[in-house]
Design goal:
With 181 residues, the protein is of the alpha+beta class. It is built from 5 helices and 9 strands; from the N terminus they run H-H-E-E-E-E-E-H-E-H-E-E-H-E. 29% of the residues lie in helices and 30% in strands. Helix 4 links the parallel strand 6 and strand 7. The longest helix is centred in the N-terminal third of the chain and has 28 residues, at 2-29.
Amino acid sequence: MRNFALPALIGLVLGVLAHLVSVLAMPRLALDDAFARLSQLGTPNAVSMVPDPTPLGATLPRMDPAFASAVCVYDLSGGALHIHVPAAPYYLSVSFYTRHGLAYYAINDRTAGRRATDLLLMTPAQRAALPEDEEITAADRLIIESPSSEGTVLIRSFVPERGERELVRARLAEARCGVTS
């Protein structure tokens, strides 16, 4: 029995280790991840509309058909990004994700005070390079530090009725995302 226990224990430990390594490595090794699929919708540092989900498929997994979505795939290597999202008639949220899908910031229209939302997105190095006497307050615009130079900004708005979808999508299309000068 002892001759069988040690190889079985070693096999079990190696199996658990292989499972953990593969589960943790898959998001970084996947070729068709969310960032790659969203990058195909438009150019970097510009807002693109995300196609509505259909019964046959969706751009992202588990997309809620009760929401209309737009995305800005960003690259901060050229400078900080200014994001302007106009007020929507219904619930609106803006979520920030790294290139590998890690959510690091989110804001909604109720937090922003039901007016247009203006945000500055920059890396910690770009934030440190801001002049000390720069008078930027939370009332003017919100500064968000991105943990990576690439990622996505997902803008979603609630669509309460089917007939309202085009109105909501038109408001989302007015959102802007671009490198500051």
